[in-house]
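Co-fold these.
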Amino acid sequence: MAKSLFDKIWDAHVVKAIPGGLEVFYIDRHLIHEVTSPQAFDELQERGLPLSRPKQILATADHNVPTRNQHLPIQDPLSRSQVDKLTENCAKFGVELFGLGHQYQGIVHVIGPELGVTQPGMTIVCGDSHTSTHGAFGAIAFGIGTSQVTQVMASQCLLISRPKRMRITVDGELRPGVTAKDIILYIIAQLGTGGATGYFVEYAGSAIRSLSMEGRMTVCNMSIEMGARGGLIAPDATTFNYLKGRPYAPQGERWEQAVAYWQTLYSEEGAEFESELTFDAAAIAPMITYGTNPGMGIALNSSIPVLGTDGEAASFNKSLAYMGFKPGESLLGKEINYVFIGSCTNSRIEDLRAVAAYVKGKHKAQHVEAIIVPGSKLVEKQAIEEGLDQVLAEAGFELREPGCSACLAMNDDKIPAGAYCVSTSNRNFEGRQGPGARTLLASPLVAAITAVEGRIVDITQYVN
Amino acid sequence: MEKFQTLRSGVVPLPIENVDTDQIIPARFLKSTTREGFGQNLFADWRYQPDGQPKADFVLNNPRYQGQILLAGKNFGCGSSREHAAWALYDAGFKVVISSYFADIFRGNALNTGLLPLQVSDEVLQGLFRQIELEPETQLVVDLPSQTLSIPVWDAAIGFELDAYKKECLINGYDDIDYLVSQRDAITTYEQLRKWVF
Ligand code: SF4
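Predicted complex below.
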């Protein structure tokens, strides 16, 4: 029977199926960070269990870390103790750690791919929902809770049931100024935050194929925002070219073998999907969100919907009240106080280049605070090598050190209550960027233009 | 994990849809390295003023609503994978969350914490919200072995679905780790077959 990409990888990782539908599912790579791992390490020790496969785990410190003065001890005692605990645990259990100060430190979903740790055909988990990012390489990658982190530590396996399959095809050519971020914000706006719950999504179609690896990662990253377990894209020449020569990618003869295997990873003609959706790339406009979940997105130049009195009205109104917006109004002209360019969705070199290319020779608006937080030390290094730091500094953007930063505001990078922030991150939940903060999700290009204009504009006039 | 058999309890209604895990437990409270104590910050930004005073209009601060069952709007627990959300609910005394839809990761995390995510239809959920609004002291009975949710005032009982293995785990207080560790031989055999990946 014709097999989907998802089934090929899934089937290859079933150690054992048990009656009732659960399967013992093997995990190739386990990524950990300071927030969701300490309780798992403790549990392991309390049960007197060894760490099953330390060599298949990679650790980094990202969620809590400051984005200034990373060479100094972390000021916040709680953040410091979490990061210290990770360091201790990694040393004790023999796990490779890219902690603060390491040349490879960065956001867990940025460093996995850029180091070549993430590879096609693998299963990858992390105690973080945006693990779906790694699916861009044709891997089955998904977020897990801390109890599952413990399970993988103890056995290198999970006990899970197979999700349903969904294929989302985006065909055609993107209009100018429309990026990977707009594609995924558009899809989520169509499906809603629970629209893909229970599914694993394969993204296909010519518009997806034409994306760079960075763009594909942006798309897969936000799969979870429509409830999907994860998202993936069949690997192709773009994938192989990206991986070749990366520090943890296979080398020499093993590279050849790997590519030969990776080329078998695609959905065969006639493969089955429980759900199939198709979108026209040309219908997608630059997007922005106006509410408090990522499904509340609109084309920049359209208006906030007016919702009737159906079941969702209370939640909708609550959300708009939080944002300080009214049903039916346009966002154009709204003044913005902060612009945050960063997070595992959009903090890669291509994102920084896009921002720098636009702001070169321009300056941010006086009242806007614009911060750029690279996804990793390697991204930061490359930005500096390419002179992007200069361009950004001249435009009044502050280039910080790598970490999750204002994506979830666990460190000092918080947006004050009531302030508006155009953010390239993935979540606009109430308080996500700090208590009372109002987040509008958008692409790096929209963020850059907003920073310069100081208000929301219809970017189509700026990109033509 | 604690055992779960049956529960008779009052209900705390939260008729909001898409409640995400950032609301259940905001990120700034995730800095602990243990599992305990998250309950005091459950729904922190909805429950307290910035100065820490309780907000009178939030349901957890309303003494009329008491119980170990949270009745929540559709798509409960979306967003982050933080198991801390399930820990916070459990730590605050909840044993069951009833909704018409749960986000995948939250459902798994809840089951691994000993918190029962009980899914009902949209109609039943709306009916329950109305019932609790009319009679806040309404009690519900959740019986796990028979997989039924009884609503004594309606003289009705509804079945609910749950994976058979997960049900056994909850009833007996077992978790997946013991099972997985017992599969070590099968796992090693599997690894030898596909070693080349590394
Ligand atoms: S950048 Fe944001 S979404 Fe990504 S891993 Fe960090 S906190 Fe999570």
